[in-house]
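Good morning C.,

I know you're traveling, so I'll keep this short. The sequence:
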Amino acid sequence: MAPAVAGPVTAGAGATAQGQSVDSNALPATPDRIERTADITVEVKKGSFDAQWTTAFRIAQRFNGEIMSSTRGVPSPQPVPLEQNQATGSARQPAIGDITIRIPAQNFVNATNALRALGVVRGDTTTTEDVSQEYVDLQSRLRNLRAEQNVLLALFGHAKTIKDTLAVQGQLSNVEGQIEQITGRIKYLDAHTLFSTVTVHLQEPGVTVIGTVHEGPSLGGAWETAKTGLVRLAGAAMITALWALPFAVLGLIGLAVWRRGRGPATQV
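The tokens, ready to paste straight into the viewer:
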């Protein structure tokens, strides 16, 4: 009698509800799928940029991360302000740099905390999206579609007429298209949940804008523009007057000759 009882219990454990039998098999092997990204701006001590830049790379290596991109330089071709080097007397620009790291999801918290410790955090944005349910649903749909694909392949092999072959082939193509679409989505979720993306911006004190500095309109700039315009307008007017002067003189001479030729008016 024991085996008779054990059989239904085993079946029930595998399918508490028939509609969820596939999900129950997938859940134990599917941990929470959470997509995380972080964007951190850290101000390092003056003169320590190179050392902290190297430390950031070591942090990525320590937590099994992969450097996706890294750039370093100065804020702009004409940065403001400039720091005066006391030793040489030359102007020095505050250094900046960006590092983007792809890091295993389980190391996300520790890695971001280590990067924040490089200096004073000036900006910190973290986004989190739980896609666990979507991932489980996709796995379930994929299992069902693969089962349907196997059935259609069997029918395709036993088709007797061209009509039956074309009908099965059409259904098979549709199922295979859905499988490719779901597989692509699963790969995308794997890439964005098994690994997280962290971007850290390092900068020295004195940097106000990271990237190209775009100067807005100012009263002084408007005045300079107005003065330049007035000078150009006056110059153009002078050139026009000088060009027209000979014609004006000729016109006056012609008018005088014409009046002299008419003489005094005849009175009757």
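Safe travels,
E.
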